[in-house]
Amino acid sequence: MKRLILALLFIGATHAAQARLEIEIVQGNASQLPIAVVPFQWRAAGQPPITGVASVVSDDLYRSGLFAPMDEQDMVDRPVDAESIKFGTWRLLKTDYIVIGQVNDAPDGGFDIVYQLFDVHTQERLLSQITSVGPGDLRFGSHRVADAIYEKLTGVPGAFATRIAYVSATGEGDSLHYELVVADADGFNPITVVGSPEPLLSPAWSPDGQKLAYVSFEQGNSAIYVQEVATGARELISSGRGINGAPSFSPDGRKMALTLSRTGNPEIHVRDLATGAMQQLTQHWAIDTEPTWSPDGRTIYFTSDRGGRPQIYSVPASGGTAERVTREGDYNARASVAPDGRSMAIANGRGNEYRIAVWELEHGRLRILTPGVLDESPSFAPNGSMILYATREGGRGVLAAVSADGNVRQRIILSEGDVREPAWSPVIR
Questions:
Q1: Nearest to residue 158, comparing CAs of 282, 42, 271, 66?
Q2: Where are the beta strands (DSSP E) in 28-92?
Protein backbone atom coordinates (compact mmCIF):
# COMPACT_ATOMS: atom_id res chain seq x y z
CA MET A 1 0.00 0.00 0.00
CA LYS A 2 1.35 3.30 -1.04
CA ARG A 3 1.46 5.56 1.99
CA LEU A 4 0.48 9.12 1.32
CA ILE A 5 2.07 11.52 3.73
CA LEU A 6 0.20 14.76 3.33
CA ALA A 7 1.26 16.55 6.46
CA LEU A 8 2.38 19.65 4.60
CA LEU A 9 -0.85 19.80 2.62
CA PHE A 10 -2.89 19.64 5.80
CA ILE A 11 -0.93 22.19 7.76
CA GLY A 12 -3.04 24.75 5.91
CA ALA A 13 -6.24 22.74 6.09
CA THR A 14 -6.04 21.78 9.75
CA HIS A 15 -7.05 24.66 11.98
CA ALA A 16 -9.14 25.51 14.94
CA ALA A 17 -12.75 25.45 13.85
CA GLN A 18 -14.71 28.66 14.45
CA ALA A 19 -17.90 27.20 15.87
CA ARG A 20 -18.12 25.34 19.18
CA LEU A 21 -20.79 22.89 20.14
CA GLU A 22 -23.19 24.10 22.81
CA ILE A 23 -24.54 21.33 25.05
CA GLU A 24 -27.85 21.61 26.89
CA ILE A 25 -29.45 19.06 29.22
CA VAL A 26 -33.04 18.57 28.05
CA GLN A 27 -33.85 15.68 30.38
CA GLY A 28 -32.04 14.78 33.58
CA ASN A 29 -32.16 12.03 36.14
CA ALA A 30 -34.82 12.56 38.82
CA SER A 31 -32.39 11.58 41.60
CA GLN A 32 -29.40 13.79 40.79
CA LEU A 33 -26.65 13.75 43.41
CA PRO A 34 -26.07 17.17 45.02
CA ILE A 35 -22.34 17.97 44.97
CA ALA A 36 -20.24 21.08 45.57
CA VAL A 37 -17.03 21.50 43.59
CA VAL A 38 -15.27 24.32 45.41
CA PRO A 39 -13.03 26.55 43.25
CA PHE A 40 -9.53 25.10 43.36
CA GLN A 41 -6.80 27.23 44.94
CA TRP A 42 -4.34 28.46 42.30
CA ARG A 43 -0.80 27.94 43.64
CA ALA A 44 1.01 27.81 40.29
CA ALA A 45 3.08 30.63 38.81
CA GLY A 46 1.38 32.90 36.31
CA GLN A 47 -2.25 33.80 35.97
CA PRO A 48 -4.96 31.15 36.40
CA PRO A 49 -7.13 30.32 33.37
CA ILE A 50 -10.40 32.18 32.91
CA THR A 51 -12.30 28.91 33.33
CA GLY A 52 -10.96 27.17 36.40
CA VAL A 53 -10.56 23.47 37.05
CA ALA A 54 -13.57 23.38 39.39
CA SER A 55 -15.82 24.93 36.72
CA VAL A 56 -14.83 22.31 34.14
CA VAL A 57 -15.34 19.49 36.66
CA SER A 58 -18.69 20.89 37.75
CA ASP A 59 -19.90 21.31 34.15
CA ASP A 60 -18.82 17.75 33.27
CA LEU A 61 -20.74 16.28 36.19
CA TYR A 62 -23.81 18.38 35.35
CA ARG A 63 -23.78 17.28 31.69
CA SER A 64 -23.92 13.64 32.77
CA GLY A 65 -27.43 14.35 34.07
CA LEU A 66 -26.61 12.41 37.25
CA PHE A 67 -25.32 15.30 39.37
CA ALA A 68 -26.68 18.65 40.56
CA PRO A 69 -23.54 20.73 41.24
CA MET A 70 -23.98 23.74 43.52
CA ASP A 71 -23.60 27.16 41.91
CA GLU A 72 -20.39 28.86 42.97
CA GLN A 73 -22.34 31.94 44.09
CA ASP A 74 -24.29 29.79 46.58
CA MET A 75 -21.14 28.56 48.35
CA VAL A 76 -20.86 30.29 51.72
CA ASP A 77 -17.44 28.79 52.36
CA ARG A 78 -14.47 27.84 50.14
CA PRO A 79 -12.26 25.37 51.99
CA VAL A 80 -8.93 24.37 50.45
CA ASP A 81 -8.00 21.54 52.82
CA ALA A 82 -9.78 18.85 54.83
CA GLU A 83 -9.30 20.63 58.15
CA SER A 84 -11.17 23.74 56.99
CA ILE A 85 -14.31 21.93 55.77
CA LYS A 86 -17.31 22.77 57.98
CA PHE A 87 -19.37 19.67 57.22
CA GLY A 88 -22.36 20.92 59.23
CA THR A 89 -22.63 23.98 57.00
CA TRP A 90 -22.57 21.87 53.82
CA ARG A 91 -25.21 19.55 55.29
CA LEU A 92 -27.45 22.56 55.87
CA LEU A 93 -26.92 23.47 52.23
CA LYS A 94 -28.25 19.98 51.36
CA THR A 95 -25.02 18.90 49.68
CA ASP A 96 -24.09 15.20 49.78
CA TYR A 97 -20.53 15.49 48.46
CA ILE A 98 -17.82 18.15 48.38
CA VAL A 99 -14.69 18.40 46.23
CA ILE A 100 -11.74 20.62 47.18
CA GLY A 101 -8.36 21.04 45.55
CA GLN A 102 -5.35 23.06 44.46
CA VAL A 103 -3.36 23.54 41.25
CA ASN A 104 0.42 23.53 41.62
CA ASP A 105 3.33 23.80 39.22
CA ALA A 106 4.71 20.39 38.26
CA PRO A 107 8.48 19.72 38.07
CA ASP A 108 8.25 19.10 34.29
CA GLY A 109 6.67 22.49 33.56
CA GLY A 110 3.05 21.34 33.64
CA PHE A 111 0.54 21.27 36.47
CA ASP A 112 -0.32 19.00 39.38
CA ILE A 113 -4.04 19.02 40.16
CA VAL A 114 -4.42 17.93 43.79
CA TYR A 115 -7.97 17.12 44.85
CA GLN A 116 -10.07 15.38 47.46
CA LEU A 117 -13.68 14.14 47.49
CA PHE A 118 -15.63 13.87 50.77
CA ASP A 119 -18.97 12.45 51.80
CA VAL A 120 -20.55 15.37 53.66
CA HIS A 121 -22.75 13.17 55.87
CA THR A 122 -20.12 10.66 57.02
CA GLN A 123 -17.14 13.06 56.65
CA GLU A 124 -15.32 10.17 54.97
CA ARG A 125 -12.61 11.02 52.42
CA LEU A 126 -13.58 9.07 49.29
CA LEU A 127 -10.78 10.23 46.99
CA SER A 128 -7.39 11.90 47.44
CA GLN A 129 -5.43 12.08 44.20
CA ILE A 130 -2.99 14.08 42.10
CA THR A 131 -3.49 14.39 38.34
CA SER A 132 -0.41 15.64 36.48
CA VAL A 133 -0.75 17.24 33.04
CA GLY A 134 1.40 19.10 30.54
CA PRO A 135 1.54 22.90 30.21
CA GLY A 136 -1.34 23.06 27.70
CA ASP A 137 -3.46 20.28 29.13
CA LEU A 138 -5.05 21.81 32.23
CA ARG A 139 -8.56 21.52 30.76
CA PHE A 140 -7.89 17.88 29.79
CA GLY A 141 -6.63 17.24 33.33
CA SER A 142 -9.85 18.75 34.69
CA HIS A 143 -11.83 16.22 32.63
CA ARG A 144 -9.71 13.45 34.19
CA VAL A 145 -10.63 14.73 37.67
CA ALA A 146 -14.31 14.62 36.68
CA ASP A 147 -13.81 11.07 35.35
CA ALA A 148 -12.38 9.93 38.70
CA ILE A 149 -15.19 11.54 40.74
CA TYR A 150 -17.84 10.11 38.40
CA GLU A 151 -16.39 6.59 38.72
CA LYS A 152 -16.09 6.82 42.51
CA LEU A 153 -19.72 7.87 42.96
CA THR A 154 -21.39 5.79 40.22
CA GLY A 155 -19.11 2.77 39.86
CA VAL A 156 -18.80 3.46 36.12
CA PRO A 157 -15.62 4.93 34.56
CA GLY A 158 -16.09 8.50 33.37
CA ALA A 159 -15.90 9.49 29.70
CA PHE A 160 -15.30 13.22 30.00
CA ALA A 161 -11.62 13.04 28.92
CA THR A 162 -12.64 11.84 25.47
CA ARG A 163 -13.29 13.47 22.11
CA ILE A 164 -15.99 13.32 19.49
CA ALA A 165 -15.71 13.53 15.72
CA TYR A 166 -18.45 14.83 13.45
CA VAL A 167 -19.03 16.21 9.96
CA SER A 168 -20.28 19.77 9.59
CA ALA A 169 -21.75 21.23 6.42
CA THR A 170 -22.05 24.97 5.84
CA GLY A 171 -23.14 27.05 2.87
CA GLU A 172 -25.60 26.25 0.11
CA GLY A 173 -25.51 25.00 -3.46
CA ASP A 174 -22.09 25.34 -5.10
CA SER A 175 -20.65 26.95 -1.93
CA LEU A 176 -21.49 23.97 0.29
CA HIS A 177 -18.43 23.04 2.34
CA TYR A 178 -17.84 19.95 4.47
CA GLU A 179 -15.48 19.63 7.42
CA LEU A 180 -14.50 16.67 9.56
CA VAL A 181 -14.14 18.14 13.04
CA VAL A 182 -12.71 16.73 16.27
CA ALA A 183 -13.69 18.34 19.59
CA ASP A 184 -13.49 17.57 23.28
CA ALA A 185 -16.52 15.67 24.55
CA ASP A 186 -17.85 18.94 26.03
CA GLY A 187 -17.62 20.69 22.64
CA PHE A 188 -14.48 22.73 23.41
CA ASN A 189 -11.29 22.84 21.35
CA PRO A 190 -12.85 22.03 17.94
CA ILE A 191 -10.22 21.26 15.31
CA THR A 192 -10.95 20.80 11.62
CA VAL A 193 -9.18 17.62 10.55
CA VAL A 194 -9.98 17.94 6.85
CA GLY A 195 -12.22 20.16 4.72
CA SER A 196 -13.69 19.54 1.29
CA PRO A 197 -16.32 20.88 -1.13
CA GLU A 198 -17.32 17.24 -1.58
CA PRO A 199 -19.10 15.10 1.04
CA LEU A 200 -17.21 13.55 3.97
CA LEU A 201 -18.79 10.51 5.60
CA SER A 202 -18.49 7.79 8.21
CA PRO A 203 -15.70 8.91 10.59
CA ALA A 204 -14.39 6.01 12.70
CA TRP A 205 -11.78 6.20 15.49
CA SER A 206 -8.79 3.92 15.80
CA PRO A 207 -8.68 2.07 19.16
CA ASP A 208 -5.87 4.33 20.44
CA GLY A 209 -7.82 7.50 19.57
CA GLN A 210 -4.93 8.81 17.45
CA LYS A 211 -6.39 8.25 13.95
CA LEU A 212 -9.64 8.68 12.10
CA ALA A 213 -10.84 6.69 9.13
CA TYR A 214 -13.39 8.40 6.90
CA VAL A 215 -14.88 8.45 3.41
CA SER A 216 -14.11 11.34 1.08
CA PHE A 217 -15.45 12.15 -2.39
CA GLU A 218 -12.71 14.69 -3.13
CA GLN A 219 -11.51 12.70 -6.17
CA GLY A 220 -15.04 12.34 -7.55
CA ASN A 221 -15.55 8.77 -6.35
CA SER A 222 -15.75 7.46 -2.80
CA ALA A 223 -12.40 6.74 -1.16
CA ILE A 224 -11.42 5.64 2.36
CA TYR A 225 -8.59 7.44 4.15
CA VAL A 226 -6.95 6.97 7.55
CA GLN A 227 -5.62 10.21 8.98
CA GLU A 228 -3.55 10.98 12.07
CA VAL A 229 -5.46 13.63 14.01
CA ALA A 230 -2.36 15.35 15.43
CA THR A 231 -0.25 15.63 12.27
CA GLY A 232 -2.67 15.43 9.35
CA ALA A 233 -0.63 12.61 7.76
CA ARG A 234 -3.01 10.31 5.98
CA GLU A 235 -3.08 7.05 4.09
CA LEU A 236 -5.33 6.07 1.21
CA ILE A 237 -6.91 2.74 2.12
CA SER A 238 -9.31 2.10 -0.74
CA SER A 239 -10.44 3.96 -3.86
CA GLY A 240 -11.38 1.18 -6.22
CA ARG A 241 -14.27 1.09 -8.66
CA GLY A 242 -17.71 1.45 -7.10
CA ILE A 243 -18.45 1.95 -3.40
CA ASN A 244 -15.66 2.38 -0.85
CA GLY A 245 -17.42 3.03 2.44
CA ALA A 246 -18.22 2.52 6.12
CA PRO A 247 -14.71 1.88 7.58
CA SER A 248 -14.48 0.31 11.05
CA PHE A 249 -11.25 -0.49 12.94
CA SER A 250 -10.92 -3.85 14.68
CA PRO A 251 -10.50 -3.60 18.48
CA ASP A 252 -6.76 -4.32 18.19
CA GLY A 253 -6.34 -1.75 15.41
CA ARG A 254 -4.75 -4.24 13.04
CA LYS A 255 -7.65 -4.70 10.64
CA MET A 256 -10.44 -2.68 9.13
CA ALA A 257 -13.90 -3.80 8.07
CA LEU A 258 -15.29 -1.87 5.13
CA THR A 259 -17.93 -1.96 2.43
CA LEU A 260 -16.76 -2.43 -1.15
CA SER A 261 -18.70 -3.03 -4.35
CA ARG A 262 -15.75 -3.95 -6.54
CA THR A 263 -17.39 -7.28 -7.34
CA GLY A 264 -20.57 -5.48 -8.41
CA ASN A 265 -22.57 -5.57 -5.17
CA PRO A 266 -21.88 -3.92 -1.80
CA GLU A 267 -20.23 -6.57 0.38
CA ILE A 268 -18.40 -6.62 3.72
CA HIS A 269 -14.62 -7.03 3.49
CA VAL A 270 -11.83 -7.09 6.07
CA ARG A 271 -8.47 -5.55 5.28
CA ASP A 272 -5.22 -6.31 7.09
CA LEU A 273 -3.82 -2.80 7.60
CA ALA A 274 -0.19 -3.98 7.70
CA THR A 275 -0.16 -6.19 4.62
CA GLY A 276 -3.12 -4.89 2.62
CA ALA A 277 -4.49 -8.44 2.35
CA MET A 278 -8.25 -8.43 1.78
CA GLN A 279 -10.86 -11.00 2.82
CA GLN A 280 -14.44 -10.85 1.54
CA LEU A 281 -16.83 -11.83 4.36
CA THR A 282 -20.22 -11.65 2.67
CA GLN A 283 -21.45 -12.65 -0.77
CA HIS A 284 -25.10 -11.90 -1.33
CA TRP A 285 -27.29 -10.17 -3.89
CA ALA A 286 -28.52 -7.73 -1.20
CA ILE A 287 -26.78 -4.59 0.08
CA ASP A 288 -24.41 -5.44 2.95
CA THR A 289 -22.93 -2.37 4.65
CA GLU A 290 -22.12 -0.51 7.91
CA PRO A 291 -19.87 -3.16 9.51
CA THR A 292 -18.82 -2.81 13.15
CA TRP A 293 -16.84 -5.14 15.41
CA SER A 294 -17.75 -6.83 18.65
CA PRO A 295 -15.44 -5.76 21.52
CA ASP A 296 -13.66 -9.15 21.46
CA GLY A 297 -12.98 -8.83 17.73
CA ARG A 298 -14.57 -12.18 16.93
CA THR A 299 -17.80 -10.96 15.31
CA ILE A 300 -18.71 -8.33 12.77
CA TYR A 301 -22.22 -6.89 12.80
CA PHE A 302 -23.54 -5.23 9.66
CA THR A 303 -26.70 -3.90 8.01
CA SER A 304 -28.28 -5.90 5.20
CA ASP A 305 -31.60 -5.84 3.36
CA ARG A 306 -31.29 -9.50 2.39
CA GLY A 307 -34.54 -10.16 4.27
CA GLY A 308 -36.40 -7.48 2.33
CA ARG A 309 -35.83 -4.64 4.84
CA PRO A 310 -32.65 -3.37 6.54
CA GLN A 311 -31.80 -5.44 9.61
CA ILE A 312 -28.66 -6.17 11.63
CA TYR A 313 -26.81 -9.39 10.84
CA SER A 314 -23.63 -10.93 12.25
CA VAL A 315 -20.82 -12.90 10.69
CA PRO A 316 -17.64 -14.38 12.26
CA ALA A 317 -14.73 -12.00 11.66
CA SER A 318 -12.72 -14.96 10.35
CA GLY A 319 -15.45 -15.81 7.83
CA GLY A 320 -18.56 -17.95 7.93
CA THR A 321 -22.32 -17.86 7.64
CA ALA A 322 -24.19 -14.62 8.31
CA GLU A 323 -27.07 -14.74 10.80
CA ARG A 324 -29.85 -12.25 11.42
CA VAL A 325 -29.63 -10.49 14.81
CA THR A 326 -32.51 -7.97 15.09
CA ARG A 327 -36.02 -9.35 14.72
CA GLU A 328 -38.30 -6.57 15.93
CA GLY A 329 -39.30 -3.58 13.81
CA ASP A 330 -39.30 -2.91 10.08
CA TYR A 331 -35.96 -1.12 10.00
CA ASN A 332 -32.84 -1.59 12.11
CA ALA A 333 -29.50 -0.21 10.91
CA ARG A 334 -26.12 1.37 11.79
CA ALA A 335 -25.20 -0.75 14.83
CA SER A 336 -22.80 0.52 17.51
CA VAL A 337 -21.88 -2.23 19.98
CA ALA A 338 -21.68 -1.36 23.70
CA PRO A 339 -18.21 -1.70 25.29
CA ASP A 340 -19.37 -4.74 27.31
CA GLY A 341 -20.63 -6.44 24.12
CA ARG A 342 -24.03 -7.18 25.65
CA SER A 343 -26.10 -4.72 23.62
CA MET A 344 -25.97 -2.52 20.55
CA ALA A 345 -27.37 0.91 19.74
CA ILE A 346 -29.23 1.01 16.43
CA ALA A 347 -31.38 3.32 14.33
CA ASN A 348 -34.87 1.82 14.54
CA GLY A 349 -37.49 2.77 11.97
CA ARG A 350 -41.25 2.42 12.24
CA GLY A 351 -43.25 4.01 9.43
CA ASN A 352 -41.74 7.44 8.82
CA GLU A 353 -40.17 7.72 12.28
CA TYR A 354 -36.58 6.80 13.02
CA ARG A 355 -35.39 6.65 16.63
CA ILE A 356 -32.36 5.42 18.54
CA ALA A 357 -32.91 2.10 20.26
CA VAL A 358 -30.87 -0.47 22.16
CA TRP A 359 -31.02 -4.11 21.13
CA GLU A 360 -30.08 -6.45 23.99
CA LEU A 361 -28.10 -9.25 22.35
CA GLU A 362 -28.58 -11.81 25.12
CA HIS A 363 -32.34 -11.46 25.50
CA GLY A 364 -33.28 -10.25 22.00
CA ARG A 365 -35.15 -7.29 23.45
CA LEU A 366 -35.59 -3.83 21.88
CA ARG A 367 -35.78 -0.61 23.92
CA ILE A 368 -36.59 2.71 22.22
CA LEU A 369 -34.57 5.55 23.78
CA THR A 370 -35.32 8.76 21.86
CA PRO A 371 -38.47 10.71 20.93
CA GLY A 372 -37.21 12.04 17.57
CA VAL A 373 -38.58 11.33 14.14
CA LEU A 374 -35.30 11.30 12.20
CA ASP A 375 -32.61 10.03 14.59
CA GLU A 376 -29.62 8.17 13.13
CA SER A 377 -25.93 7.26 13.41
CA PRO A 378 -25.70 6.15 17.08
CA SER A 379 -22.25 5.92 18.70
CA PHE A 380 -21.64 4.53 22.20
CA ALA A 381 -19.45 6.42 24.68
CA PRO A 382 -16.40 4.34 25.67
CA ASN A 383 -17.89 3.75 29.13
CA GLY A 384 -21.24 2.67 27.71
CA SER A 385 -23.15 5.33 29.68
CA MET A 386 -24.30 7.55 26.80
CA ILE A 387 -25.08 7.24 23.10
CA LEU A 388 -24.28 10.10 20.72
CA TYR A 389 -26.46 10.40 17.62
CA ALA A 390 -27.56 12.73 14.82
CA THR A 391 -31.05 14.16 14.49
CA ARG A 392 -32.93 17.01 12.79
CA GLU A 393 -34.12 20.19 14.46
CA GLY A 394 -35.55 23.26 12.75
CA GLY A 395 -34.64 21.95 9.33
CA ARG A 396 -30.97 21.30 10.04
CA GLY A 397 -28.85 18.52 11.41
CA VAL A 398 -27.84 18.61 15.07
CA LEU A 399 -26.30 16.17 17.51
CA ALA A 400 -27.90 14.75 20.62
CA ALA A 401 -26.98 12.24 23.29
CA VAL A 402 -29.07 9.90 25.39
CA SER A 403 -28.11 7.74 28.33
CA ALA A 404 -28.14 3.99 27.78
CA ASP A 405 -31.19 3.74 30.06
CA GLY A 406 -32.98 6.61 28.26
CA ASN A 407 -33.28 8.74 31.43
CA VAL A 408 -30.87 11.53 30.45
CA ARG A 409 -30.85 13.44 27.16
CA GLN A 410 -28.58 16.19 25.85
CA ARG A 411 -29.06 18.58 22.95
CA ILE A 412 -25.82 19.52 21.18
CA ILE A 413 -26.05 22.51 18.86
CA LEU A 414 -23.47 23.92 16.44
CA SER A 415 -23.85 27.67 16.00
CA GLU A 416 -24.14 27.37 12.22
CA GLY A 417 -24.63 24.75 9.52
CA ASP A 418 -25.59 21.10 9.66
CA VAL A 419 -23.76 18.61 11.83
CA ARG A 420 -23.99 14.87 11.32
CA GLU A 421 -22.13 11.52 11.39
CA PRO A 422 -20.96 11.63 15.03
CA ALA A 423 -18.38 9.20 16.41
CA TRP A 424 -17.35 9.04 20.08
CA SER A 425 -13.64 8.37 20.64
CA PRO A 426 -12.18 5.68 22.87
CA VAL A 427 -10.63 6.75 26.16
CA ILE A 428 -7.66 9.07 25.47
CA ARG A 429 -4.55 7.78 27.25
A1: 66
A2: 33-37, 41-42, 67-69
Q: How big is the chain, counted in residues?
A: 429
Mean pLDDT of the chain, nearest integer? 91
- In order along the chain (429 residues), what is the average pLDDT of each group of 10 residues? 31 49 77 95 91 94 92 94 95 97 94 98 97 93 97 95 95 90 91 94 97 95 96 95 96 98 94 97 96 98 96 97 94 97 96 94 94 93 95 89 91 84 89
Q: DSSP character for 426?
A: -
Half-sphere exposure of residue 427: CA atoms within 13 angstroms, side-chain side: 11
Rounded CA gap, 260 and 353, in Å?
29
CB burial of residue 12 (10 Å; 0-12, 13-18, 19+): exposed
Instruction: Return the H-helix or E-strand segment holding 147.
Output: helix 138-154
Spatial contact of 312 and 329, defined as CB atoms under 8 Å apart: no
pTM score of the predicted model: 0.89
pLDDT at site 18: 54
**Distance (Å, rounded) from C-alpha 59 to C-alpha 184?**
13
Question: What is the phi-psi region of residue 264: left when phi exceeds 0, alpha when psi lies from -120 to 50, beta otherwise?
Answer: left
Residues linked to residue 128 through DSSP beta bridges, in sequence order: 116
